[in-house]
Amino acid sequence: MGKSPYEKWLTVGIILLFVGVTIAPAIAQNTEKSQSTSRGTWLYVGGGGPGNYTRIQDAIDNASEGDTIFVYHGTYYETLSINALTLIGEDRNTTTIDGGGSRNVIHIGSEVNIQGFTVKNTDTHHSGDAAFFIAGDNITISNNVITECSYGFCDQYEYGGQVEIFNNIFLNITHESILFVVYIWEQDTSYSIHDNYFYSNHIAIRAVSGRSVSIEHNHFEENDIGVDSQGSHAIINHNNFINNDIPAQFLRAWFFFFMETPMYYKPSFSENYWDDWEKTTPRPIRGTFWFLMMRWLVILGIIPGYYFVFPLIFFPFLLVYDRHPAQEPYDIPGMS
Description:
10-stranded parallel sheet; single chain; mainly beta
């Protein structure tokens, strides 16, 4: 005997209820994930969408704190000033910000995340012109190509903060690919530089002062100087140093009446790959000590010249060691 229409509809209702209970958690999970990765409004530059901006700075000027700006591939001839936003390029190999030979290409405030661009073309002859000039904290720079600039990343004026730089390629930088100055009294400042590729630059990284500095899992190749640490307490681990004129060096300075950093501030090296060191024994890294008199002593006639430099190159405390050098180079994601 067949079921009545009422029984059939009851059966269908139970089935639909079961399917809804099963699917609902998945829908809720996807919604939650979308909210966690997309905070604020998205604005678009380039492409063919209605309402898309043609200039990146116009989108920045019309964005609110916490918004994300997505830039479609193309070359954008402009300089930018950005604060409290996320800026994403479609593809770092085809989405280019060209500064046109200007001073700084991107001036960065606080709470900024930038990824997916080629950033190029500052005035390469003027000291201080950077692809990324830092004037804030809580900054993340990732998955970019930085080339044809005087500086790649410059925090020369002690703005400091929490900074992470990873998965970038630095190529043909005429001064420093990354330069930062962090004095001892800036207690909350930390730098994490990892998984980057530095090729054919003058100085790949110059770390001036700073106690919370991590330089790990980077590739340094054919640079004049790989890492130059000046009064920095940097941790330098698991990097490749290949065919650089000077793979790494450090400086400790004492100024006649005050010290910029404590005398015990010096970098530490561990498990780096050195193409000039095939041994398993510790590899030495040489440092220099400078004893500097300040200019007012010259003005008073106490000492001659601009300043007095007394290098103590071969003192034992001016050597540090990578006690466990790696025997093979590491695979660095930022190279691909």
